[in-house]
């Protein structure tokens, strides 16, 4: 029995006891007015984004401001917001700009930003419990399954992005297909080394996941690709057979639905057939390409994806949601839950009454116990626009990619370096008298100057030893005129820089 110490049972009566404080505003009307000011400012900021440079170098004075020591005394909300306007707002990454095509980073929307504010104000924890935000996430996951044509009985989880989605999916794959109980015994109990397979075009998050899962990067077998950057199935079959003969245990195949370098799609149908025939888990990394399923004109690209045992994809990329929100779907709910569920007494839940009830506790399906309300911006955005509009804009981006490819192909100064199956265009400036090494340096400088001058923000990759300027188009604000400017400025900068190198 717990015995309370009488000496500590209550604070002593003392006239000098400090008054209790709160972090709520002293003046709610002033805070409300400041909130209106913030909304007005940010809507103007979004409405006028096209008038600003895509990106600007960060001035030394800003770096100095951001190296000041920890605040000790309060400066108040109004001055703090002014600091945001002066220091933070003028120097973004640029991904909301119409001419941002770097990496694969989405743009967000005004209504999505407002949804984030509402989620932060409610501030629920979606680890579990009986509350409506939990039901919103359940509905969003059901909608994701419908969007991708996936098993309606499958499990799912909203996560921070594709990297975490891949980690969750591959964790379930490892634990389910292992020849032993990984959770109780650890990998030291493995009777033979476990191996998994994907193409050399796999995203680096797959290797990170494999390393975090304790398998080691050597367990990830990278298979060559064909001239369209798709996995070579005969090479995959040979690698799996060779590893089996050598005493290793192949347990998983990773298929790409839109590679990060070129937007290539593996033959998901044939990969699914192979994986299931070999009794291997089939995981699809569909970070952005899985959402081709939303466009009726592009659904053929993801044929076979519905046969996957797990799918990872991002909603903040090609669904234009504010960062961050990704999703993992797992065909077997039981396997998904077995991989993560751990319920100590202080987290016990169930039944049909009270806050501890609830039809699903998401902490049973992933790493996090504390989880934000990222489902709200998805739920509200899908209601705002409807799925058919998203499909049209995704298709629009692919048409813009083909338009950019046509502009590149028509320009004698430019060379396209890869097919354009989806929304990524890789090209470079070429000049007589320069060898490959010099051309690589030239194109790298073109890219940097495009950034520094605030013209556009593509990224880069290297294809067959050639440095490529890479435009990944997941931007609902881009127009054809933006791609015309990218091409004309690339040619202008290339001519000037090539002239300097040749001279």
Question: What does it look like?
Answer:
Helix content is 40%, strand content 13%. The relative contact order is 0.13. It has three domains: 64 residues; 271 residues, Aspartate Aminotransferase, domain 2 (3-Layer(aba) Sandwich), CATH 3.40.640.10; 114 residues, Aspartate Aminotransferase, domain 1 (Alpha-Beta Complex). The longest helix is centred in the C-terminal third of the chain and has 24 residues. It has 503 residues and is α/β, with parallel strands linked by helices. It has a seven-stranded mixed beta sheet, sandwiched between helices. Strands 1-11-12-10-9 form a five-stranded mixed beta sheet. Strand 5, helix 10 and strand 6 form a beta-alpha-beta unit. Helix 4 runs antiparallel to helix 12.
SS field, number of helical segments: 15
Helix share, percent: 40-55%
Protein structure class = alpha/beta
Overall radius of gyration:
26 Å
Q: Ends: how far apart? A: 90 Å
What is the count of distinct domains? 3
The coarse silhouette is globular
Per CATH, what is the topology of the largest domain? Aspartate Aminotransferase, domain 2
Mean pLDDT equals 95
β-sheet strand percentage:
5-15%
Strand order of the largest sheet: 2-8-7-6-5-3-4
Q: How are helices and strands ordered from N to C?
A: HHHEHHEHHEHEHEHEEEHHHEEHEEH
Biggest sheet overview? 7 strands, mixed
CATH level-four homologous superfamily name of the largest domain: Type I PLP-dependent aspartate aminotransferase-like (Major domain)
Low-confidence stretches: none
Any idea what the CATH architecture of the largest domain is? 3-Layer(aba) Sandwich
User: How many β-strands, per DSSP?
Assistant: 12
